[in-house]
Amino acid sequence: MQRNGITPFHGFGIGLRPPHYEDFLAAPARVDFVEVISENFMVDGGRPLDILHRVRDRHAVALHGVSMNIGAVDGVDVAYIRRLRQLADRIDPLWVSDHLCWTGVDGFNSHDLLPLPYTEEALALVCANLDRVQDALGRPLLMENPSTYVAFDGARMSEPEFLAAMCSRTGCQLLLDVNNIYVSATNHDLSTDTWLDELPWQHVRQVHLAGHSQGEHMLIDTHDAPVPRSVWELYAKACARMGPVATMIERDDHIPPLVELLAELDMARDIAFVATASRREHAA
Amino acid sequence: MNLRDLQRSFVTNLLGAGASPPGASMEGMSVYAHAYHSQLLTCLRDTHAKTREWIGEEAFDKAGKAYVSVHRPHSWSLDDYGDGFASYLGEEWPDDPDVGELAWLDWTLRRAFSGPDATPVAMASLTDVHWDDAVLTFAPTLRWRYVRSNVAALWRALDEETSPPMAAPGSVPPALRVWRHGFSTRFASMSAIEAACLDLATMGASFGEVCRDLAARVGEEEAASGAGSMLGDWLREGVVTAVR
User: Fold this and answer.
1) A149 at the B interface (CB within 8 A)?
2) What is the pLDDT averaged over residues B148-161?
3) Which residues on chain B place their C-beta less than 8 Å from a C-beta of chain A?
């Protein structure tokens, strides 16, 4: 099946969440796009779908999923993919994304983004699943690097190496979550600079920015706080390497008024502008 | 360890049994275990808000944790988790039917919220209907059940933050229906007679058959006015989406 490419898009957006529905319905918001959680709209009907259609009339929309289970040893759920395709056909999104992870096995679903071992076996499985999903959706996917709290014996690749091989083999692209890099690198005592050095930057099509919290033993990807300085600094480094890439603020808990998220988004705009200045000067 | 065995080992540990997969730290695995259990409990709290308010946070969380410990999610949709929690609460509180019935109402309203869309039948389109043969199609979100408690009044009182009414014995409407009209989820109490008629009609009986069944229960005279009143309610409230 033909897979259409992804149209270049470099705007700034936020994750659209229920507390801001009325703001978005009242007037166009000062964003270039919104991202929605796909599963929240993979429903039969009702107000959620109506709201999404009305927002879509005003804004570009990216679909971001949490349940694809691309690391499933049993293969991806065909019914899930069919439902996702229906939504994508309705919304005509900028792109469709999900996470490099698995969510369950033997019919069990944890509803969490569980970590994969970065082995050749896992890579082959993920690539086979990605091929099937991309064919079924008729479009390339964006895959997001996860926050992880464990690593496994026997891993032969770093996460960026795994991502690079996955993109190279399947044609998928990357949704780079800068907060997840910081969280995972800190939890596994890795260097974020090394992480950035190994990334296949040419495949990055979108960036997530979010906050995290300090757990008892490690950092937890909670999306419940403003983007911290550590993540802004890493974002500046990423911008210098990748140039303009669609960027959004992701907030899922303790959601503030829209105006506060838009202020954070302005900060992202400023950082991206400054960090990419040298690239523009070089190009000129 | 191959990938399938690693994932099985991970899940076993997540559910509280078995060692961590090779190389995975206990501290890291505890993060996943905590996220799993807390997310499912949060889901139950979210989908059964009035029930939580009625029985209190402590009792609800105790029941929710017990439910999570034995009910594993299988659907890709987190929205599906909790289908069965109302029955579970009903079994846990056998002498307090309001608890399980309130949970059923919470759950059914939530399902109706994002259930299939349907347009109520327009009154103006019914002028030439031959009612004896007419078969009604109902909103796809319509669900109903018999109840033993004053759950409808209880839910409304909780919603309006007023004092829940005392249920006088014998005064409680014995059935309840839930549906969505446009984007508005609704519920209404029903008499036993209306519940029996709705049961027949949703199984595909013609309106004439429903009326004859009603007449056998209450007599011809009362059935004539009762059936018309009942049909009028169903049409006005958007419960009926087609008449053929």
Assistant:
1) yes
2) 94
3) 1-4, 6-8, 10-11, 14, 20-25, 27-32, 35-36, 39-40, 72-79, 81, 112-117, 140, 180, 183
CA B236 to chain CA mean position, Å:
22
| Pairing status of strand A96-99 against strand A60-64 | parallel
Confidence of residue A2 (pLDDT cuts 50, 70, 90): very low
What residue ranges do the domains of chain B occupy?
A: 1-114, 115-244
Least Cα distance to B150 among B116, B99, B75 occurs for B99
Structure tokens at A92: 């005509």
User: What number is the ipTM of this complex?
Assistant: 0.94
Give how many domains chain A has, as a whole number: 1
- Give the number of beta-carbon pairs within 8 Å between A and B: 122
Domain of residue A229, residue span:
12-283
In a domain, A36, yes or no: yes
B73 and A108 in contact by Cβ < 8 A? yes
Percent of chain A with pLDDT over 70: 98
Q: Quick: pLDDT tens for B203-223.
A: 999 999 999 999 998 898 888
| H-helix or E-strand spanning residue B230 | helix B220-236
What is the DSSP code string of A17-61?
A: -GGGHHHHHHS--S-SEEEEEGGGG-SSSSHHHHHHHHHHTTSEE
Which residues does chain A have within 8 Å of residue B79's beta carbon, measured at their own beta carbons?
Answer: 43
Q: How many helices (H) and strands (E) does chain A have?
A: 10, 10
* B117/A150 Cβ within 8 A: no
State mean pLDDT over A34-56. Answer: 97
What pLDDT is attached to residue B225?
85
pLDDT of B29 over the 50 cut = yes
Kindly indicate the confidence band of residue A279, based on its pLDDT and cuts at 50, 70 and 90: confident
A151 within some domain: yes
Phi-psi region of A161 (alpha: psi -120 to 50; beta: other; left: phi over 0): alpha
Pairing of strands B143-146, B136-138: unpaired
User: Residue A267's domain is classified under what CATH number?
Assistant: 3.20.20.150
